[in-house]
Prior knowledge:
- The structure is a homodimer.
- The first copy, chain A, is 15% helix and 33% strand.
- Chain A has one helix and six strands, in the order ββαββββ.
- The model of chain A has no long low-confidence stretch (mean pLDDT 94).
- At the A-B interface, α1 and β3 of A face α1 and β3 of B.
Amino acid sequence: xxxxxxxxxxxxxxxxxxxxxxxxxxxxxxxxxxxxxxxxxxxxxxxxxxxxxxxxxxxxxxxxxxxxxxxxxxxxxxxxxxxxxxxxxxxxxxxxxxxxxxxxxxxxxxxxxxxxxxxxxxxxxxxxxxxxxxxxxxxxxxxxxxxxxxxxxxxxxx
Amino acid sequence: xxxxxxxxxxxxxxxxxxxxxxxxxxxxxxxxxxxxxxxxxxxxxxxxxxxxxxxxxxxxxxxxxxxxxxxxxxxxxxxxxxxxxxxxxxxxxxxxxxxxxxxxxxxxxxxxxxxxxxxxxxxxxxxxxxxxxxxxxxxxxxxxxxxxxxxxxxxxxx
Lengths: 158, 158
């Protein structure tokens, strides 16, 4: 049997920056989103809980924004390592924060099915990475976001 | 002693659309954000919990996006009632959903102080309301958002 093992970028974030509510592996109250490199693109998956509702039957837009936010910074980190020809475990660590994002709620996102969060890098320029993130449910894209992520300033980790 | 009593728009949402994770009065696991009309503008307040962290010491961007999202729809509803010269308790209820939003994280938002979320209506056109929402901590604006909200289609509540 042939298998491919993918490693999530968040599992390589240093412990002192691994408490993010959206994707920190050390935040046991958070979403613990994991972003994987899949070919040229990136992928994450998330199944909302029943209480993540907007109006009954649909996913809360703030959660969808959170998924786009975290997968956008994860996608940026993946792209930055690849761009430097480095593996995720190499030093120094590259960690990104969101500078801005634009989100279009194309249609209501049904609450129930697992959501797929896909990322495509649009631009890498210096410390900035721009990516397009889409969320789909049952094969239908319901949300599209653009995330401008920047490499975390040293001042935020001191 | 003179006092002013403000009523939150979310307390007037019908029960069947009051389960939003961000601002539904009936979602006991959610944030239960409340949006008030204050003069021409709107105001909400929120104190993040310790686990709502991005990196240590700062508020998670996905939560900030959630606050902007919900206060944007609350601001839209307040504006729509005012625009029609109606009070919040009058029928039919006016309930909005977010069509799109743009968020600029101007600087890191410190985790600890109460956040003030201010709303200003920029445009009302038919079923659409555009508002500018800012978040401030300790008197400093850290996040600025623009929310395009549309009156909820009937199809979402059936």
